[in-house]
Amino acid sequence: MYYAAKVLSLQTNTNSNIMETRKHIAVEKLDSGTHNCAQAIICTYANLIGIDEETGRNLGCAFGAGMGNMEGTCGALTGASVVLGLTTQDKAKARKAMRQIMTQFQQRNGATQCKLLKGVGTGVVLRECSGCVADAAELLEEQLEV
């Protein structure tokens, strides 16, 4: 599978290349139509958090379209929070890192809520889903390096 080959190549890349590669893998997963935004993030980091692809998909299946199609928090951000929780295994560290991600995402995109990002009700799209996934992956990588 294409994703597996990319993940294996991560082991030989530098940290900066790993971030770019994971970011692209997450976007590819979303764009393939097989993953929602949360699943794309969780499954891209599955090897890092010690789970398989199927478990990652199950963890993120209800977070699509802003948590259960309710247009709440962006699924890519909820996926990042799952990864943070499993990597840090520390409530305070995970919350602090997630606050940083949320703040930076908000500054970059103008919102953290799926509904607002997609322009539901306003007709003004702030960021497409693939961009949200790329941003969440990039910001997550920055926190994982800390």
Structure, briefly:
By secondary structure, this protein is mainly α. It has helices spanning 2-10, 15-31, 37-44, 46-49, 53-60, 75-88, 91-109, 114-118, 129-145. The chain contains nine helices and no strands.
Count of folded domains: 1
Please give the number of β-strands. 0
Secondary-structure element order, N to C = HHHHHHHHH
User: Structural class given helices, strands, pairing?
Assistant: mainly alpha
Chain-averaged pLDDT: 88
Main sheet summary = none
Outline: globular
Number of helices: 9
Radius of gyration: 14 Å
Helix content: 55-70%
Q: Flag low-confidence runs.
A: 1-13
* First-residue to last-residue Cα separation: 31 Å
Query: Percent of residues in beta strands?
Result: under 5%
Q: How would you describe this structure to a colleague?
A:
- The structure is a single chain.
- Helices cover 69% and strands 0% of the residues.
- It contains 9 helices and no strands.
- Helix 3 packs antiparallel against helix 5 and helix 6 runs antiparallel to helix 7.
- The longest helix has 19 residues.
- The N terminus is likely disordered.
Give the topology, please.
Elements: H1 2-10, H2 15-31, H3 37-44, H4 46-49, H5 53-60, H6 75-88, H7 91-109, H8 114-118, H9 129-145
Helix pairs in contact: 1-2, 2-3, 2-9, 3-5, 3-6, 3-9, 6-7, 6-9, 7-9
